[in-house]
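Input chain follows. Return structure tokens only.
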Amino acid sequence: MDFWQVHGLLFLICIALFPRITMLVAGIVNSFGPLGWIGWLFVPHFTVAILATQIYWDKNPVLVIIAWFWAFAGTGGEGAAASKTKSR
């Protein structure tokens, strides 16, 4: 299954910028049980990267690698923003 056959550019932008809302609306988390919900709650960018790896690695490895870079950058950026807000 190819990513572009199932999803479009709007989905890609939304899942990168708003992973929790997009996964919730798309119903992605429901199919992975409690572990999916824990990932959705605590590390949504990594959950997206893990799911992308499982589903799209064979057809779109570049897209999966970008998802992993985005996961590390997104999680690190959120942590830095939260620590700045907390220290004020």
